[in-house]
Amino acid sequence: MPEQGLDNHAISGKRVSIHKKALDQLIAMTDRITRAEGRTPTMVPFLTIVRSSRESLKNPGVLTPSFCLILQGAKKLYLGQDIYHYSAGDYLASLIDMPAAAQIVGATEESPYIGLRIDFTAQEIASVVMEAEIHTEPKEKSLSAGAFIGKSDAELLDIFNRLLKLIDKPKEARFLSELIKREMIFNLLSGDFGHLFLQKALFDQRADGIGKAIHWIKENYASSFTVEELAKSCSMSISGLHHKFKAITTMGPLQYQKRLRLLEARRLMLSGPMGATTAALTVGYESPSQFNREYRRLFGLPPLQDMKAVRQASYAGDSRIVKKSISRRNQPVKPFEEPQGLLLLQLHDEG
Question: Quick one: DSSP state of residue 243?
Answer without folding.
Answer: H
